Amino acid sequence: MDRIPMTGRGFRALEEELKHRQSVERPRIILAIQEARAHGDLSENAEYSSAKEAQSLNEGRITELESIISRAEIIDVTKLTGNTVKFGATVKLVDEDTEEEKQYQIVGDLEADVKFGRVSISSPIARALIGKKVGDSVEVNTPGGGKSYEVVEVAFR
């Protein structure tokens, strides 16, 4: 069984989703199935079919979350140190062409969200950054073409 690296924040988010699906969604769907059954003939009952499909999707996600949580390898980013980029690092970059600053934290695949500056450890930018230090230049192949960045800060928070 492969371990799944993630930050504490990512792990807590998965636990919260699991708890919500088990304690809120599951009872809501069961109630919807019971109400749909009360309408009679199940063979042509759209509400029943819809509720059963929602139940199947919810139970599938619960199983998936339980599997992920059981294989999670939680990495406490606050205990990491050093000046090279690795999992959990928050990296400040400057685009060498436009001088635009960007900041990313390298996180597990399941918690990546570029809108919040969290990039997956398996993303092209993270793979290019791993092992780099402040002052290093890095070339990243993006869908829009190659980009050059300079690493200006590496922090663990």
Tally of extended strands?
A: 7
Radius of gyration: 22 Å
Please give the largest β-sheet. 5 strands, mixed
* Helical content (DSSP H or I, runs of 4+): 25-40%
What topology, given as strand order, has the largest sheet? Answer: 5-4-3-7-6
Q: What is the average of the pLDDT values?
A: 93
Q: Would you identify the regions where 5 or more consecutive residues have pLDDT less than 50?
A: none
Approximate strand percentage: 25-35%
Structural class: alpha/beta
Question: Tell me, what's the shape?
Answer: elongated
| Spatial gap, N to C terminus | 29 Å
- DSSP summary: helix tally: 3
Which H/E pattern describes the elements? Answer: EHHEEEEHEE
Task: Tell me about this structure.
The protein has 157 residues and is of the alpha/beta class. The protein is 39% helix and 26% strand. The chain has helices at residues 8-37, 46-71, 124-129; strands at residues 4-7, 72-75, 90-95, 101-107, 118-120, 137-142, 145-155. The strands form 2 sheets. A 5-stranded mixed beta sheet has the order 5-4-3-7-6. The radius of gyration is 22 Å and the shape is elongated. The mean pLDDT is 93.
What is the compact description of this entry?
By secondary structure, the chain is α/β, with parallel strands linked by helices.
